[in-house]
Each structure stands twice: as structure tokens, then as C-alpha cells.
Design goal:
heterodimer, A: alpha/beta, Rossmann fold, six-stranded mixed beta sheet, four-stranded antiparallel beta sheet, 10 helices, globular, B: mainly alpha, ABC transporter involved in vitamin B12 uptake, BtuC, two-stranded antiparallel ribbon, 4% strand
Chain lengths: 240, 294
């Protein structure tokens, strides 16, 4: 299987403390790979290390057939190579308007506003509103819209449904499903119903290391293994 | 009544100088988290090069075109000096904020020493248009005309800064970067170019302020930048780091408080009152009047 992202032996540090210990996995050239694990195992740090937002060393390659090493590049260059990043807690610019948040994110000469406003018509109506005054769900739409304006080779999406109302979770999951039709995605997500709906592959982490990789369907079929890795039974399916 | 009008307008003139220094400091700190102790040097260099241009252009009083050229040269030299400091020193210490602050302290000291060496330590009087040495009657107060020049210049700089911040892509990047620098880079933007931009803009405003401070004081002197820098830092902290509107409001408040206390209480007490105001603001609103917690 061709992969768009390949991570090998990735260590990462925050404030002098080592958070990741030789993390390695691949993200396929199509579809969604979910990065799972309990709180504090290093999922967000893994995303930030790939993007160069924390001090890291190891091998990160972007692209098919081995690809190009991006593990010593600056964040803006990595993103410029087509890595769209939707951070945990959304990180929209609260003192900029919705329209300004989107305008800032434009990298391509022909940004795809039709796609974005098609997925999130609310954003067009609220273009002049300060992003800081939006609800959590609306802010998540802004964060997703910022990356979807551009052509990407890979999306890294960190806990997009965190803290959202159930109806909004479905809306965000729909948008992710639509985006995943055209671009591969590394998805960090605690909501297993969303994961089982979207993900083909799973990568499970514990204590800064990868402890399991495989097909999502296989993991969800094996309740004992799921319980062992994540400490949960998959009872969330009804909520999707 | 006429004393109040006179004090108010001279306070606005002084506030204009504070604003010209503080606006750049505030943008630089807001975006880069660098307390730029070299900012006073930008002002001094701008003032001296504007003065030198004036010496070559005119004898006695300056014509308006000559004075406009002096202002332009002051702003340009402040901008070029700031550009060099950013590109040659600050940029090499990317993400090492303590070292960046230390290097600005060093540049500030070295630049003042350089000015001392090149022009001497005595103050020198600036050729200015004759009109600015006269007064205008405002509601019975005889207001020195140089005050109006300072105020008008600050208003123009304010308008230019707000236009830049709200109408250009650089401005958009700067406003976003003040709020969340890491996220700007995570959108694929090289935020270091915005760093250079705020240094150049801040340097230009300070250099312009150098010629205007020379007009206000009727002379240039090597310590002129650092004398204003202390109050400009206070203005920036009171106004809220990173906020241009906050700098403007605080510049006016600080200058008015200072002028009125010096006049109605004891001369010199105004400086102390400004420090008291700073302490009060830090206790009640640590992020400043217009600042937000980051």
C-alpha cells in the first residue's frame, strides 16, 4: 500500500521532557487513519512533532514512494507542502472575523470557497462576526474550513469533536467524511463512534509509543483487545 | 482656563511622542515577545540624521519642504537601522527571547555611544520652520505651534498603522500573530517576515518621532531616545502589549497626568504619578487597559 506519511523513530520533547519515544507508523495514500490512545499518551504531541511545532528528531517522510524528509523543516514549509492542520481546541483567531480567519489561511492561488461554504453555509452568514464570539461547533467549522480552502496532500485533524454537542458532532463527522473522499487524513479522536464510521486504519499509542497498528474493523471486532488498549467497550456506536 | 487648555495641548504633544515610540514597541512585543530596548536608539538615530540633513539643507530656520524632508529622512533612517538590527541580530536568535532582549540592550548602549562619538555629547539645536517657534491663540491660551505638528504627525501615523493592520495581508498576519504566533505558522505562513515588517514599521515611527522630539525639545541630544523610551514602555504596559489603540489611549493618559501634576502640584511629581498609575493598572488589570490574556 502506498503511504502519504511515514513516521519512524520519532522522539519529541516539550520543555526538556521527552514525550515521544521512537514513534513509528504510516498513513495510507487514501482514507482515514485514526490515532487512538488514552489521555496524555502523546497523540497531540505526535501531530505537533510531525508539523515541527515541538522539538523533535526522527524520520518523517511526506509523499509516495519514500517521499521527502520533512523532519528538520520549519512548520510553515511543512504546511506549505500540503499538510493541513486542524489543531486540538481549534485555535481560531478570536479577535479576527470569520472571513479574516479564512483569508489568512489561503495558500492556493484559487482557494476553494465553494467547497467550504457548501459544507458550512453558516460561515458565509457569519463572515463579519469575530471568531471568538462563535460557539465551539462554529469555531470547529472555521478551523476545518481554514484547511479545506487549500489543496492538501494530507490532513492532520486533532480531536475535532471534543466538547461539541451531539448534533454538531454529526455535522463535523459529515464534513470530515466529505473531506476524506479527496484527501488522506490522520485523525486523532476520542469518540469511537466517529472513528469507526470514518477510519480504515488505526494506530494506538500508550506512554509515548505505538502499541498497535491495524485495520479499524479488526480492532473494533475484538472487544477484548479494544478494552486492553483503550480501556473502553465500544458501546458508543449508537451515538454516531 | 487658558492654563488648562495650554496644558492639555502640550500634554497631547508629549503624548504624540510617546505614541510614536510606544506603537512600535507594542507591535514588536505583541508579535515577537521581544522587549526592544534598542527602540530608543532608533529614535535617536532618526533624530540625529534628520538634524544632519537639516544642517545641510538650510541655515537658520528651515522651509516647510526642507523640514518635511528632515522628517522623511528621520523615519527612513529609523526604519533602515531597525531593519539591520532585526536581520543581523534578532533573526539569528529566533525563539531565544532572553538573548534577543539582551542584544537589544547592547545595541541601545552602542548606538548612543556611537552618536556621542560622532556628534558629541552636547545638545544641538534643530533648524525648524519659523512658524513652529511662534504661538497660536486657542481659547485664550498661547499654544506653541510645534505641539500641533507633533499631534498631526501622530494622528497620521495612527491612521497609517490602522490602515496597514486592517487593510493589508501583512496587517492580517501581524494581528493574528499577536494572538497566536504558532498557529500562524501552522497555516503555512512564514511569520518571520512579519517580524521584519514590525521592526521596520516601528523603526520608522520611532525615527520620525526622533525629529519631532527634536522639534519639541528644540534640540537633539544623545540621551533623547532613552528619556522617551522609559515612558514609552510604561505606556505600552498600561495600554496593553500588542494593542495600538491601547498605546494611543495610554500615551494620552500618561502625558496628561504627567503635565497636570507637574504644573498644579510639584514639578517632578508627575513622573512619580505615572509610575503610580503603572502600579495601579498592573494591580487592577495586569494585561493593560486594552490587552487580553494570552
Amino acid at each position: 500500500m502506498s503511504s502519504i506519511l511515514s513516521v519512524r523513530g520519532l522522539d519529541a520533547f516539550i520543555g526538556g521532557q521527552q514525550i515521544l519515544h521512537g514513534v513509528g507508523f504510516d498513513v495510507g495514500g487514501t482514507g482515514v487513519a485514526a490515532l487512538l490512545g488514552r489521555n496524555g499518551v502523546g497523540k497531540t504531541t505526535t501531530a505537533k512533532a510531525i508539523l515541527g511545532l515541538v522539538r523533535r528528531h526522527g524520520e518523517v517522510r511526506l509523499g509516495d514512494g519514500g517521499g521527502r524528509r520533512i523532519d528538520s523543516e520549519l512548520t510553515h514549509r511543512i504546511v506549505g507542502r500540503g499538510v493541513g492542520y486542524v489543531p486540538e481546541d481549534r485555535e481560531v483567531f478570536g479577535r479576527l472575523t470569520v472571513a479574516e480567519n479564512l483569508e489568512l489561511a489561503v495558500r492556493d492561488t484559487r482557494p476553494n470557497y465553494e467547497l467550504v461554504y457548501g459544507l458550512f453555509p453558516e460561515l458565509a452568514a457569519r463572515a463579519k462576526q469575530l471568531a471568538g464570539t462563535l460557539s465551539g461547533g462554529q469555531q470547529q467549522m472555521v478551523a476545518l474550513a481554514r484547511v479545506l480552502l487549500n489543496e492538501n496532500r494530507l490532513l492532520i485533524v486533532d480531536e475535532p469533536t471534543k466538547g461539541l454537542a451531539p448534533l454538531v458532532v454529526t455535522e463535523v463527522a459529515d464534513a470530515l467524511a466529505a473531506a476524506a473522499q479527496t484527501v488522506p487524513m490522520l485523525l486523532i479522536e476520542q469518540n469511537l463512534a466517529v472513528v469507526s464510521r470514518l477510519a480504515r486504519d488505526v494506530v494506538v499509542m500508550a506512554e509515548g509509543r505505538v502499541v498497535h497498528t491495524g485495520r479499524a474493523a479488526d480492532l473494533f471486532a475484538d472487544q477484548d483487545r479494544l478494552q486492553q488498549l483503550l480501556g473502553v467497550h465500544q458501546t458508543a456506536e449508537a451515538k454516531a | 482656563m487658558s492654563a488648562v487648555v495650554l496644558l492639555l495641548i502640550t500634554a497631547l504633544g508629549l503624548g504624540a511622542l510617546y505614541f510614536l515610540v510606544a506603537s512600535g514597541l507594542s507591535l514588536i512585543y505583541g508579535l515577537m515577545r521581544v522587549l526592544n530596548f534598542a527602540h530608543g536608539a532608533f529614535l535617536t538615530i532618526g533624530g540625529y540624521l534628520g538634524y544632519t540633513a537639516g544642517e545641510h539643507l538650510t541655515h537658520g530656520s528651515a522651509s516647510w519642504p526642507a523640514f518635511a524632508l528632515m522628517l522623511l529622512i528621520g523615519a527612513a533612517s529609523g526604519a533602515v537601522f531597525a531593519l539591520l538590527v532585526e536581520v543581523l541580530l534578532i533573526r539569528r536568535l529566533y525563539q531565544r527571547e532572553i538573548e534577543q532582549v539582551l542584544v537589544t540592550v547592547g545595541v541601545g548602549l552602542a548606538a548612543v555611544a556611537l552618536v556621542n562619538g560622532a556628534w558629541g555629547s552636547d545638545s544641538r539645536s534643530l533648524p525648524v520652520p519659523a512658524w513652529t517657534s511662534r504661538t497660536t491663540d486657542v481659547l485664550g491660551a498661547r499654544v506653541p505651534n510645534d505641539q500641533f505638528v507633533c499631534i498631526a504627525a501622530a494622528v497620521l501615523v495612527l491612521a497609517a498603522l490602522l490602515t496597514m493592520l486592517h487593510r493589508t495581508r501583512y496587517g492580517l498576519i501581524i494581528r493574528a500573530g499577536v494572538e497566536n504566533r504558532a498557529m500562524v505558522t501552522a497555516l503555512g505562513i512564514d511569520v518571520r517576515r512579519a517580524f521584519t515588517a514590525v521592526f521596520v514599521i516601528g523603526g520608522a515611527a520611532a525615527g520620525l518621532g526622533g525629529v519631532l522630539a527634536a522639534l519639541y525639545n528644540s534640540s537633539v541630544s544623545p540621551g533623547m531616545g532613552d528619556a522617551l523610551l522609559i515612558y514609552a514602555f510604561i505606556v505600552v504596559v498600561i495600554g496593553g502589549l500588542g494593542s495600538i489603540v491601547g498605546s494611543l489611549a495610554a500615551a494620552v493618559v500618561v502625558a496628561v497626568l504627567q503635565q497636570f501634576t507637574n504644573y498644579y502640584a510639584v514639578s517632578g511629581l508627575g513622573d512619580f504619578m505615572v509610575v503610580l498609575l503603572l502600579a495601579a493598572v498592573l494591580l487592577v488589570r495586569p494585561t493593560g487597559l486594552f490587552g487580553r490574556a494570552s
